[in-house]
Amino acid sequence: MTGISKQFGPTRALDGVSLELSAGEGLALIGENGAGKSTLMSILSGAQPADGGRMEIDAKPYAPHGPQKARQAGVAMIYQELNLAPDLSVEENILLGQESRRFGLVNRRAQRQRAQAALEALGHGNLSLNIPVHQLSIGMQQVVEIARVLVSKARVIVFDEPTSSLTRADAERLFETITRLREQGIGVVYISHFLEEVRRVCDRFLVLRDGRSVAEGVLASTSEADIVSSMAGRRIDELYPSVPHSPGEPLLTVTGLSGVLKPTDVSFELRRGEIFGLAGLVGAGRTELVRSILSLDPVQAGEVRIGTAIPAPTPKARLRGGLGFVSEDRKGEGLALSRSIADNMTYTRLRPYSRWGWMNLKQRRLAVVHWMEALQVKAASPEQAVVAISGGNQQKVALARVLHQDADVFLLDEPTRGIDVGAKATIYRLMGELAAAGKAVLFVSSYFQELLQVCDRIGVMSRGRLREIRPASEWTEHSLLSRAIESN
């Protein structure tokens, strides 16, 4: 790809970007949300045309008119949200639109052989071809999607944030699959906000910022700090900013909390001025615990105390008691996507702007602008719909809501999932500042490294139970994982 440009109205999404990929190579495409990565890959995969520049495969012009033409030319994309027919079988999904035909009839034998060969090439030859896809784990569904790409004889495969919904074990299997693909001479473009993942599967990197390519090189000889600085356009000396804070007296006390299935008899204290991390694998019960604390899910037993008060077991009472919640499902329940930034930031606390049934919109706008500036939310105005801003900025809006709410205890469930490095650094710093201001932060994350770097104490959940709590300095990634997978 040479000199690729793309403009949407007055916005220049890409400005002369060039990219080169060799057979069997892994290229990491890195950049903050809104840098132009998705636009560049949508042009490569035929989803939209470029306004300028040219593309070549094997020194021959390449200009696909749609994703189907791109696949026929050997270019395929594996999206973050998988595109499978859940009620069809593994075989049917792999060959969907590419069925083996003879005299106008589907050749079942040839079709099964092609599907089986694709799975064997990925190291999953034992996967049943007859099982409906919806019965598979997300990781195995991803294998089916990659097999479908192999059947189309893809030579270039783009992976867009492929591990965002995977367990650690499934992610490891994906890395092994990508290694197999590269050994077969397939070129891989890998998009991820996790730099340690990038180093696992790629040789080189290309950094985009504001629609331009600003850095490229060999990963083995480039530091993480240099890559992050290129992404952000400024020097970030620490990916995990340190804000001094000192834990004090208990602010949130949970005693014997049990839900319908999870959590099970959970007790812990969260202190004022503390960042308490909650580690565990997918399905461990971390989200269920947070939702039970807020009374979003039914509770069968236990007590939640905020300071000295025991609020009624309703979300309204818990919010008024000082709890603030940011859901892991940002788009599904964390934000009202069709509403404005101003609405989303202020929905949980409108009283300061309401008088005799009327809303003082000017006063509210000033408050929203304050929080947008404090969290560096990039948007056209407070009136812009949340759906129209990047994922990282959406997450900042969700956090601004609980800041504006003036909560005392912040329940943050996977607040850094799917956002870029610069936005993550902002959120880490914000948590430190909250603790320094005497607030308490409960930080749920599947990424153990950030828990180790940011938290004061870490508790590990497994099978709905809180297994062990220690100071963060006494944990390692290995010990966290070992405790998380214990069955007893």
List keywords for this structure.
17 helices, Rossmann fold, alpha/beta, globular, 6-stranded mixed β-sheet, 488 residues, 2 domains
User: How many structural domains are formed by the residues?
Assistant: 2
What percent strand? 15-25%
* CATH 4th-level superfamily of the largest domain: P-loop containing nucleotide triphosphate hydrolases
Strand order of the largest sheet: 7-10-11-3-12-13
Give the beta-strand count. Answer: 24
Number of helices: 17
Largest sheet: 6 strands, mixed
Short summary of the structure?
The chain is α/β, with parallel strands linked by helices and 488 residues long.
Strand and helix map with partners:
Elements (H helix, E strand, L loop, with lengths): L1 E7 L2 E7 L8 E5 L6 H8 L7 E3 L1 E2 L2 E2 L5 H6 L2 E4 L11 H6 L5 E2 L2 E2 L1 H14 L16 H14 L4 E5 L7 H16 L3 E5 L3 H7 L2 E6 L2 E7 L5 H9 L17 E10 L6 E6 L3 E5 L6 H8 L5 E8 L8 H6 L2 E4 L3 H5 L6 H6 L7 E2 L2 E2 L1 H14 L16 H14 L4 E5 L7 H16 L3 E5 L3 H7 L2 E6 L2 E7 L5 H8 L4
Parallel strand pairs: 3-11, 3-12, 7-10, 10-11, 16-22, 16-23, 18-21, 21-22
Antiparallel strand pairs: 1-2, 1-4, 5-6, 8-9, 12-13, 14-15, 14-17, 19-20, 23-24
